[in-house]
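User: My collaborator sent over this chain with a note saying "see what the structure looks like." That's all I know about it. Can you take a look?
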Amino acid sequence: MKLNKMTDKQKSELLATERGRLPDLDNPVEKTRSYITISEILLDFAAGAATDGDVGAVKSLLDQYTAAIRSARDTMLESDLDAERRPAGYRDLEISLRGQIRRLDDMQRQLSTDDRRPVTDALDIAAAIREQMLRRLFPQSSASRSGLDLS
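Assistant: Without extra context I'll predict from the sequence alone. Here is the result:
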């Protein structure tokens, strides 16, 4: 999915489509991929709001973004799919979060210190969820990773 080649209207339509599909999706990997698409669009809109200096919109969009990535995480964790044998959804979420964390870091730099809190919070949540996915994908090396609780 190339969001940078889409207009805001196309992104909004895709966002509505993906949100509408969620209740009908039974496959946890497909559901997670839908949440990933939603999170990518919301993060793109939040980055635009940050560029425009609209801190209220940044906070609102990042609240929706964190809800989407938490839902993606919960979908995979509740699926009982073995991440080592069937890594698809876990891997998709981890890879997506890796890029999203970079975007959040860039977004944070665009805002004044006083306005960074929503971005910092979203960054912390994204990093913690990515860590959870890595622990599922590579449990043998999780002893060297610190445990982060996101409840």
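A starting point for your reply to your collaborator: Residues 12-18+27-141 form one domain.
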